[in-house]
Amino acid sequence: MGGCVCLQTKIIKYIKIGKTSISIQKVKAFVKPNVTMQVYGCNKDGPPVKDLPIAVMMFKPLDLAQQLSWAIATRENKSFFDARAYSRLILQGSRAVQDPVAVKFIQSIVDDIDFHQVINRTQHLADFLSSITEWLQQHTTNSIVGIDRFQPDFSAGTTQSFDSFYWRHRNRRMRCFVGEYFYHIKTWTSTATNWSFITDQDQLQSGDALVLSVPFCDTGNQPDNFDTVIKQCEQLSIPILIDACYYTISSGIDLDLTSPAIDTVAFSLSKAFPVAHLRIGVRYTRDSVFDGQKLHNTINYNNIFGAYIGKKLMTQFKSDYIHSVYNEKQKQVCNQLSLEPSASVLFAVGDSKWNKYSRQHLLDSYQLDFDPKLFVNRISLTGVYDNWDIFKTVTA
Amino acid sequence: MKLKLEFDNIVDRPCCSVTVNQQQLYRGEVRPELTLFSKDLTDRVELKITHYDKKPEETVVVDGKIVQDRSFTLEKIIVDNYSFDELIWESKFYADTGEVYPSCLFFGPNGNFVIDFQLPVLPWILKTRHQKNNNDPNWEQDYNYYEQACQLLSQISNK
Questions:
Q1: Which of A28, A80, A393 sits opposite B146 (nearest CB)?
Q2: CB B126 within 8 A of CB A81
């Protein structure tokens, strides 16, 4: 009965909810999904017809998602047209939660600092780099093995590390799995870089360089074939970049970095804390690497302010903070929306019924021409967490 | 209903009156912006903007060309904060001389600019736009979600 109105009595053209008379055609959007509602038939603009209960309504979780998206979008954009445009993006993307505790803490840091003094103290970069490895390793539900074999450099988010990797391995063919972060594909296509998706017909070969996100960008989960792919890269001497930007927001991730094929590992604070625009990240490479990014690290020509904020955040919050705070909420949302929880707490995975929430908008914004059906319907829960009162009201 | 009218190319201090469903909201000199309010309007609305008090000598013709003309142009109609945009052209100008000019926003001769619409204005805009362009098949569903969102947010803010 999902998605339709079941009328248990005579043909009624209008119903009355509160003081509002609405046509049966319109009723779908007025009622709560999966909730039984007692309404009464009436004439248009007339009083309710007594003793005529007409409907028990049930709606698909998709309608609940629509209600949530619209309410969140309308809260942030008062006009219908702005709200409509924004509602289509609410359950997309991968931005950090505006966690009120973290936001308040960040504000308190900013309120207290002498900005000029902070940005001229290069020690903040060293403090950040000397803390982050241990901070990452303290994650209680994930594990990292072998990170001690690498040297850390400050990175502008994970993105700077990607660019450094592409450049250092520019003579190789860039490879990734379908569902990988679109930034790679955009960069490769826009610079005429030799690249292709890994498929059954086009497998990894000697001379390739691999970019692999762990957790995997498409789902937020540990890649199923991680060990196999790493071994294959070892055999073919393929350098690997591990994009671990979702590591801190996830659970159950085992990141074994002991393979000599692993060239670069990149982490970021942008998904765990609402500081994406400060571009706070770290890159791990082998001792032998001395590229432009390493140079900037060596001469302290980096984002000192970002490093300062990053160090403060790491001192205040554990690396699994966001996961531990939002894990229960993720379960509640997934239960209400019939979604599969991702290992990354900001995401859930929807089946084909969720095609409306495909990556089409993201592909459009990246100006990439791929069929969205190639990708998993990864639902972003950030907007729901940020508007928890709306979620609770809609599902009450 | 909140009605905002925006005028441009105002020449020689022309006069207009604004009426909705025969209720006069304004009478006087044309200003670049007029913000007017009307109560107790439901469903169908006829907006009439009347250009009056122009005399023949206020159109100055030299060598067959108009060199000075008391006139103005309607630029925007905004009802309850929603602009009509291109739907402003769904109107007619009835000159006092008897001519009827469809889709005319220029107030040259004395006469009445008339446009009909419905309240609430948003679904009218969405519906009319879809009827013209056939490009917004989900307008009604989206409108209902928006209405529901507004009610929900109101409910939350009143808690």
A1: A80
A2: no
ipTM beyond 0.90?
Answer: no
Residues B137 and B111 in one domain: no
pLDDT per position as a tens digit, A40-52: 445 555 555 544 4
d(CA A202, CA A177): 11
Stretch A10-18: mean pLDDT, rounded? 49
Identify which of A74, A79, A389 has the shortest CB distance to residue B149: A74
Q: If phi over 0 gives left and psi between -120 and 50 gives alpha, with beta otherwise, what is residue A283?
A: beta
Look up tokens 């990292």; give the residue: A144
Same domain? B23 vs B90: yes
Domain that holds residue A34: 4-59
**Residue matched to tokens 């993105």:** A159
Place of tokens 């929900």: B152
Residue A155, strand partner residues = A281
Q: Mutating which of B122, B143, B150, B152 best tests the A interface, going by the most A Cβ atoms within 10 A?
A: B152
Residues A356, A295 share a domain: no
- CA angle, corner A148, sides to A144 and A151, nearest 5? 115
Same-domain pairing of B112 and B125? no
**Residue A9: per-residue pLDDT:** 34
Within a domain: A321: no
In terms of residue numbers, what domain contains B81? 2-119
Domain identity same for B82 and B143: no
Alpha carbon separation from A127 to A21, A152, A304 (Å, rounded): 64, 12, 10
A24-33, A118-127, A131-140, B42-51: segment of lowest average pLDDT? A24-33
